[in-house]
Amino acid sequence: MAKMPVMRAVVEVLKSEGVDVVYGCPGAAILPLYKAMEEDGGIAHLIVRHEEGAAHMADGWSRTTGGVGVAVGTSGPAGTNMITGLYTAHADSVPILCVTGQAASDKLHQEAFQAVDIVSIAEPVTKWAVQVKEAAQAPWIFREAFRIARSGRPGPVLIDLPIDVQKQLIEWDASIDAPLPVAKAEPHRPRVEKALDLLLAAERPLILAGGGVILAEAHAELVELAELLQIPVQATLMGKGAMDEDHPLYAGMTGVQTSQRYGNASFLESDLVLALGARFGDRHTGQLDVYRAGRTFIHVDIEPTQIGKVFGPDLGIVSDTKLFLRAIIDLARERGAGRRAGEWVARIQELKATLTRREDFDDVPVKAPRVYKEINEFYGPDTYFVTAIGLYQIWGGQHQKAAKPRHYQVCGQAGPLGWEIPAAIGVKTALARTEPDAEVVGIVGDYSFQFLVEELAVAAQYDVPFVLIMLNNEYLGLIRMAEDHGGYAMNYEVDIRYDEHGTDNVKIMEAYGCAGRRVLEPGDIRPALEWARKEAARTSRPVLVEIMIEREADTANGVRIDDVREYEPVP
């Protein structure tokens, strides 16, 4: 077998695993890999301005394609800068691969320049972190990394490459190589039968679609089961888009923040919950005694250790979500168990029609719900949205509609500020081959915008167009609420305005070769969105619509941020 540079073999592995673009920043300790990418030419590369941005770009790429996104950096701070991106992917079950350069193997114990034990640092926020010690292992370690990232509950991996290992030759023949198989957990038939028995016996059952439904590409089966048995469906924040929210069986979102009033009310009236690929996160459940009271729970998850982690369900089933849904649908059809819509479905539709939140505000400054009303009406179901953390995540959960899986992307558990811009770049570049004209929209707060704003330069350099919609209240709204209502009775260090409006975000856009427009009145939102769409298409660069919203949003649109019991409006 002919010999070849080990990094050339690694590039061949990356291509065969479906990687068509890499996000990263070259440095001395990773140059052999960059040389191999240059010589091969089969993988595009975007040079980032910060390695955290690279990891979030890989994250956005992965959430859009379902594949494993790749970020690359050199030694030392490049790896430590990626940790937030790894944590975000780990928390949200997103398969990404971060590759770091490293000092020479014989220098690691001598505190050499930029030599750090990145493997130990990354282990708590990865499924696997490993340093390649022998060049002949490299392609096999990369194969295993992709298998681990995709297997079970997906997640991130990190591979550390000492510079001396990268420079070696190995025997490798890409023509006889292939990705390692990924096994999927199949449901145990008796447990499927028990689950169906419980569903059919319940008077007011709900299906709770978590992020696992989207990861398993099980949205069609979800709708099929719901329609067959006429069971209403709710979604967690990570499951948003698993069912079209205009579907007559969609029953909203339960939670203490990102929720609908009718969703909380529907949940409290249910007597059984079939949870599919859901973690039972604390912002969804609220107080467990309220959440669990009077309800039977069936928990289906591909990761065995997720079952019982928050509370013990009445029935736990370890299975790939799609395989479970297929099995229970087939069993229901065998039994002739199809049903027509009854009183429970009618009750859900009544709650959905009456327990709503107002959105048609004409106030100046603009109220946040009006912004989401305009977004829902202006953009179609094929638009891809990314959003992050803060009051606008809450408002998005409450007001923004999602019609398709992988079209509403949010950093849920980790909630890193600054995620939106690099994530939008990852989403848009992921669509370059399959949906080049797809609209990508990032919904961002004024504070989060500034965390990784330098990645706008990447979008400008590589002609990556998307629209940013900023809800600017000029202060840290969610932290202000926590200070004021969390028992601290304070209003300390949350204001980020130093003149009439603070940072001129439109000028920041212009400094990066992009465009922006500030909106002060609700009637100007729609024209600004129309302008942004045309400007992004014309320039092939990001465009900002900055909407100045009211500062006093202490109750998040008149709904208390307490627990799942509180779904009535504030008096």
Automatic annotation (TrEMBL):
<dbReference type="Pfam" id="PF02776">
    <property type="entry name" value="TPP_enzyme_N"/>
</dbReference>
<dbReference type="InterPro" id="IPR012001">
    <property type="entry name" value="Thiamin_PyroP_enz_TPP-bd_dom"/>
</dbReference>
<feature type="domain" description="Thiamine pyrophosphate enzyme TPP-binding">
    <location>
        <begin position="389"/>
        <end position="547"/>
    </location>
</feature>
<dbReference type="InterPro" id="IPR012000">
    <property type="entry name" value="Thiamin_PyroP_enz_cen_dom"/>
</dbReference>
<keyword id="KW-0436">Ligase</keyword>
<keyword id="KW-0456">Lyase</keyword>
<dbReference type="GO" id="GO:0050660">
    <property type="term" value="F:flavin adenine dinucleotide binding"/>
</dbReference>
<comment type="similarity">
    <text>Belongs to the TPP enzyme family.</text>
</comment>
<feature type="domain" description="Thiamine pyrophosphate enzyme N-terminal TPP-binding">
    <location>
        <begin position="6"/>
        <end position="120"/>
    </location>
</feature>
<dbReference type="GO" id="GO:0000287">
    <property type="term" value="F:magnesium ion binding"/>
</dbReference>
<dbReference type="GO" id="GO:0003984">
    <property type="term" value="F:acetolactate synthase activity"/>
</dbReference>
<keyword id="KW-0786">Thiamine pyrophosphate</keyword>
<dbReference type="InterPro" id="IPR029035">
    <property type="entry name" value="DHS-like_NAD/FAD-binding_dom"/>
</dbReference>
<dbReference type="GO" id="GO:0005948">
    <property type="term" value="C:acetolactate synthase complex"/>
</dbReference>
<dbReference type="GO" id="GO:0030976">
    <property type="term" value="F:thiamine pyrophosphate binding"/>
</dbReference>
<dbReference type="GO" id="GO:0009099">
    <property type="term" value="P:L-valine biosynthetic process"/>
</dbReference>
<dbReference type="Pfam" id="PF02775">
    <property type="entry name" value="TPP_enzyme_C"/>
</dbReference>
<dbReference type="GO" id="GO:0016874">
    <property type="term" value="F:ligase activity"/>
</dbReference>
<dbReference type="InterPro" id="IPR011766">
    <property type="entry name" value="TPP_enzyme_TPP-bd"/>
</dbReference>
<dbReference type="Pfam" id="PF00205">
    <property type="entry name" value="TPP_enzyme_M"/>
</dbReference>
<dbReference type="InterPro" id="IPR029061">
    <property type="entry name" value="THDP-binding"/>
</dbReference>
<protein>
    <submittedName>
        <fullName>Glyoxylate carboligase</fullName>
        <ecNumber>4.1.1.47</ecNumber>
    </submittedName>
</protein>
<dbReference type="GO" id="GO:0009097">
    <property type="term" value="P:isoleucine biosynthetic process"/>
</dbReference>
<feature type="domain" description="Thiamine pyrophosphate enzyme central">
    <location>
        <begin position="192"/>
        <end position="328"/>
    </location>
</feature>
<dbReference type="InterPro" id="IPR045229">
    <property type="entry name" value="TPP_enz"/>
</dbReference>
<dbReference type="GO" id="GO:0009028">
    <property type="term" value="F:tartronate-semialdehyde synthase activity"/>
</dbReference>
